[in-house]
Amino acid sequence: MATIRHPSILNLGEFHTVRLYRNLTQGSLVVDGHPPVNGSSQGRFQGLDLNEELYLGGYPNYAAISKTGLSSGFVGEMKAGDGSVQGWMDGAGGER
């Protein structure tokens, strides 16, 4: 697992473009066209190996993932291309 955080301060109330890239153990995060922030995952996994659900923006039980240091999820709205994914997030435990 890897955690990549971008240092840019985002203006609230505006849409931002977030792109995630992964090649084997190397990953990059690009926000609003700024230079990428890179990271790498440790261990034997070399791709997006999902044994469980993938949650974007929230998680149903933060106590179960306390080692991450997270206690709340994304507050706002996400869009994928021309469509909103808000309804999907609501069903997955994401917050608005």
Automatic annotation (TrEMBL):
Stretches assigned to coiled coil: none
SUPFAM superfamilies linked to this entry: Concanavalin A-like lectins/glucanases
Gene Ontology cellular component terms for the protein in this record: membrane
Source superkingdom: Eukaryota
Laminin G domain span: 1-96
Protein name per its UniProtKB record: Laminin G domain-containing protein
Pfam families per record: Laminin_G_2
InterPro entries found in the cross-reference section: ConA-like_dom_sf (IPR013320), Laminin_G (IPR001791), Neurexin-related_CASP (IPR050372)
